[in-house]
Amino acid sequence: MCATQRSSSSLLCKALGNTGLVGEPAEYLLSAEAGGWETGEWATRHGVTTRAEYLQLVFRADTGSNGSFGSKLLWEHVPDTLEKLGSLMGGDTDTSPETLLRTVFPRLRYVWLTRRDRVRQAVSWLRAAQSERYNSEMPATSGIEYAYSFQQLDAIVRVIEQAEHGWARHFEGVATPPFRVCYEDLVEAYEQTALDVLTFLGVPFTRPVAFGPRRMERQADADSETWVARYHAERRGRS
Q1: Sheet (strand 73-74) strand order
Q2: pLDDT band at 139 (very low <50, low <70, confident <90, very high)
């Protein structure tokens, strides 16, 4: 699952995991700085010390009974992920990203998550960063004083745009085009979107699929909407 921050990737991971058909998709390919790979807490807990061992640990943990494996990858972690996978493949720097990924994941399929409203995405990102609460399953902290900043929001919008352009360039050279999922559609059709992804992946299922309980909740609130309106007003005033 290819995504940017605050594009519903965690929600889709949970939706697919709740089908019980594709393992437990999660953000296994975090950069080392973000706590992933062989130096991260998860690897340490399982006694893993090398990249090859870490990758095998991930496959064991997240491969479903039908052989399906899923992980999400944020654009900001792509360079680090490619470097680490490349080192496992002998360090050939001439290998294209698509070839490298297909060597590690032979039956690779892409699901590309986006948001139509990038300003709301930026607001969500900034507020999550300020609260250090990136999904509703993380413990809430009382007394958070959110600080609106046009400059920070505008910078985040540009980061999102650059990331989306990066994914678009990557998909120009892939063998199988990605399946597109928009945040706005996923939140309105959670279970159906998950089933559409399963169909795209070629994972057989019999209707009705018994989904597990949905635990993640929307984090945006009235204050988020106030920030969105304020950003648009300031953007107009500066143009």
Answers
A1: 73-74, 2-3, 111-114, 179-182
A2: low
CB 235 within 8 A of CB 157: no
**Within 10 A of 228 (CB to CB), how many other CB atoms are there?**
18
Question: Cβ distance 100 to 82 under 8 Å?
Answer: yes
> Which residues, 6 or more positions from 178, have their beta carbon under 8 angstroms from its beta carbon?
2, 109, 110, 111, 112, 171
pLDDT band at 207 (very low <50, low <70, confident <90, very high): confident
**At 139, which amino acid appears?**
P
For residues 196 and 207, is the Cβ–Cβ distance under 8 A? no
Q: What is the pLDDT of residue 218?
A: 63
Q: What single letter denotes the amino acid at residue 95? A: T
Residue 172 is predicted with a pLDDT of: 94
List all residues 6 or more positions away from 61 whose beta carbon is below 8 Å from its beta carbon: 23, 24, 28
